[in-house]
Amino acid sequence: MITRMDADIGRIFALLKSLDLERKTLVIFSSDNGAHKEGGNDPAFFAAGGGLRGLKRDLYEGGIRVPFLARWPGTIAPGQVSKHVAYFGDVFATLTDLAGLQTPANLDSISFAPTLLGQADKQAKHEFLYWEFHEGGTKQAVLLGANWKAVRTSPAAKLELYDLATDLAEAHDIAADRPEITNVIETYLRTARTDSPDWPIREPEKKKPADPAPAN
């Protein structure tokens, strides 16, 4: 799959160049989640998580932190690496911004066009980002600024806090040491969401005990 994807992306680039559209086209590449283990895939075999904790459907960095690459010859300088924090909702405002259109008001979307164009001093930033996931029970996460990451694995679970600046693998829970941070995040966990009958907050279902093995 990786070999085919690499070859087909090369075909796209070659076509853009042959049509003289290479310098007029922004190409974006990303993923919708981290490594997975469906279908017998072993994410540990190729170290697919890159040392991050968690997999697809987790709210740890291994489940939600994904690569994001942008290519636009003549407009985006090659070889840049940015630490700007963005999420998929920001793509909408970015594209309207680049197209010279007005982004609708009252959205969480923030354009990262300044980052793409090498204008980091003009880049607006999110105060926080919020995630909520309901498969297998409700999970919540908040990223405050660029480094403070909090995860609640179920409604009854205690809040975990990690400093991604020093602990990107989320191995050391420091919630007990930083109550001033967790108090702020607890507010976001309550207010950054809207109740929905389609996605009720619920505890994970308890696994039924396995049936006893038949006697010989």
Give a verbal description of the structure.
The structure is a single chain. The chain has 216 residues and is an alpha+beta fold. It has helices spanning 2-18, 61-64, 90-98, 113-116, 179-191, and strands at residues 27-30, 68-71, 128-133, 139-144, 148-152, 160-163. The strands form 2 sheets. A 4-stranded antiparallel β-sheet has the order 3-4-5-6, with helices on one face. Strand 3 (128-133) and strand 4 (139-144) form a beta hairpin. The N and C termini lie far apart (47 Å).
Structure keywords:
globular; 6 strands; alpha+beta; 22% helix; 5 helices; 216 residues
SSE blueprint:
Layout: H1 2-18, E1 27-30, H2 61-64, E2 68-71, H3 90-98, H4 113-116, E3 128-133, E4 139-144, E5 148-152, E6 160-163, H5 179-191
Antiparallel strand pairs: 1-2, 3-4, 4-5, 5-6
- Oligomer classification: single chain
Give the uncertain stretches in residue-range form: none
Strand order of the largest sheet: 3-4-5-6
Shape: globular
String of helices and strands: HEHEHHEEEEH
Describe this structure in a few short sentences.
This protein has five helices and six strands.
